[in-house]
Amino acid sequence: MKHLLFINPWIYDFTAYDFWLKPLGLLQIAAIVRQYTGFEIHFIDCLDRFHPRLGRKYLSKPDGRGPFPKEEINKPEVLKFVPRKFSRYGLPLELFKEELNQMPTPEAVLVTCGMTYWYPGVQLVCELVRQRFGHVPIILGGVYPTLLPDHARRHSGADFIISGPGENQILPLLRSILGNRLVQEKEFENLDDLPLPAYDLLRNKETLPLITSRGCPFRCTYCASSLLFPRFEQKKPIQIIADIKYMVEAMGCQNLAFYDDALLLGSPFHFKPILKGIIKNSLSIFLHSPNGLHVQAIDLELAQLMKAAGFQSIYLSQESLDPNWLKEYSPKVLPEDLMEAVNNLEAAGFSRNQLNVYLLAGLPYQNWNQLERDVKEIVRLGLRPRLAFFSPIPGTKEWKKVIEQGFLRENDDPLLQNKIAFLYKQGEEVISKLRTIEQLLAEGTKTKN
Fold it and tell me: What is the CATH code of the structural domain delimited by 3-178?
């Protein structure tokens, strides 16, 4: 039997939390490889907080979220200016080595990376794989090699880079590396052709992610969705309903997080039928929207369906209440859209305390007074403001501004794209304003509780 090893690396960061975070892209590729090759699949998840040999339990909240194990480490030199602790999140190093030592020698190792500035986790995985297996081919995909392919080729330690969606790249690449005997030819024309991600590789399947679409037709200046997936496409509702039914009944999934960037686009023909299917099949599941929902799409019917289908965690992508700011940076929404959505959700039975509102924080030269007013208004309305911190993402319009304004240079270490590091990069005045707003948030949370 020939083997392939899939690895989800550690996160290196100032902060990290399991916000329904699973390596969905890697699991999708694993499902394809398992179905269309003769290889046996193995998986090591460095972010597995349910590993039985961790030594302590990392308990989940009722909605499935929870803390990662972590080990504080020395900050890289380029991040020394940030006065915060830096950690490696995930399995202890020795436990990962034990897992690696138990694996049969693979024909190739497939690795993912979810953020450009998380690449040190990839580097360490590649280093330890080399120590254990010698010069086995290592294939890297995900956000990091898609947005920074040249850096990934030079610095990741991987032999082969996949940029962009990998479903039609992985099989030809494996054929070229390993020969044709064990790898079939297959091309996927659309999302409906893809098999269900290999969720069975996860140790805990009570909380799972799902995408019903890829990409986003909106072009917010700070967002990389259209760079990662240039074409917006949606799965057929009937397939999504079948997938959710299987995840609930066969896998025991209790919390389902939608990873879509534009979940509600065309909802009368897409998401409303999905919700109706969940209701019709009496699927007992809690639904979550961590990526944020487009508020202008939430009419009363949709809100009622969301309530009946089991939505628990609702995050609304408002970003700002300043109409001029929205026109320039995020033309998908208007300030008045928020209250219309809130009124519909409230009429459907949701309490305002359940509704989280994303506000973007940390853009260069941001009007922090406006952000402070926005936070106060969200609190006054009885909603929960959530700061979504800006990260300068290569290829976006805001990235070009960041370079032009001299905050970063094109060839700077991607670690400086870290959202916390970029805040401190802007100076003490910004940090002081942020502390004021965080105090407002703390007071608002205390009032609600």
Answer: 3.40.50.280
